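Worked Example 4.2. Read the sequence first, then its structure tokens.
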Amino acid sequence: MSDINIIPFVDVALVLLVIFMVTAPMLYRGFDLTLPESQTDSTYKPEKPIVISIETEHVIYFGEDQLGLDAFPARLRAAREDNPEISVVLRADKGIPYGTVITIMDMVRLSGIHRIGMATQEQGGASLFPAPS
């Protein structure tokens, strides 16, 4: 028989595909936040934004690094110096007071970064503003 048997190759390729599909979502270490819901989707999606997360205990993460409020402005300025066109995505738990979110946004703007986005999750229920009947 002069044909090449590709069945074992396909079996191995499919097993590897399944393994990578299962492990890929586990590679991103996220934080347990309850994001507010939104009916609209953001049209601007920056390539590599800085992700700033605020947990319910007012713990601030710059990417995956936990920071205090005193080190936060210096880290923002350093990121802006590396890339003047940098953008920030702010992820805050919906239980965080509005004033805390505004304080963080002010720190971002004062560092010279003016492209700020807010992370939300898609609303799965009824409309926030139902149509009048």
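Now turn to a second chain, presented in exactly the same format:
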Amino acid sequence: MQRIPEVAAAQVLVSLRQGNLSAAAHLVQTHDLPISQARVYLAQGDALTALAVLEPLRQQMEAKAWQDELLNVMVLQAVALHAHGEKDKAVQLLGEALALAEPGGFIRIFVDEGPPMAALLREAAKLGIAPNYVRQLLAAFGKAEGRTSVTQLLIEPLSERELEVLRLLRTDLNGPEIAQQLIVSLNTLHTHTNNIFKKLGVNNRREAVRRAEELDLL
């Protein structure tokens, strides 16, 4: 069950994208997810509280030299600073995050922040910060924005719920654990899974994940 916090954090992202603040808030209350908590504060328009959550967390990650976790915090801090009206600080911090991320070729960590991060990256591009990497990231944003047209290539597009199930199918969780995370019965999960298989034209979980990756649905 080590992946439960990771799965819950992914569910917070899904809920926020769907505009379901109550579901996201419930998840961060149920699990110890400080970064997700900051996301919820941002979604509620409270950038100052989000920053208050993130600063000590950043110090903790720096002290432990946890680079990947530190990068997560820095990226969200940049978004929060921008939302709080501190544009210059936001771009400066984004530059630091880009320098940390570029050697590892991180993409999703930026794309997951959506339009606010795309706007910040465009500001970084104007200033000539990590130009090649920033161009790569902005291209990834364009690809993400085109996912809707990609899903239209399917006979029948996946619903938001089916996409959520698909993301969980990509994890190491088994069927009962996924059903528990979604708060649905195993029969309901089987129905969703069968619909996903049918729409993607596959016969099993592994094929579904591979096909979804080919279509850039994950």
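Notes for the reader: The chain is about 75% helix and 0% strand. The CA atoms of residues 62 and 70 lie 7 Å apart.
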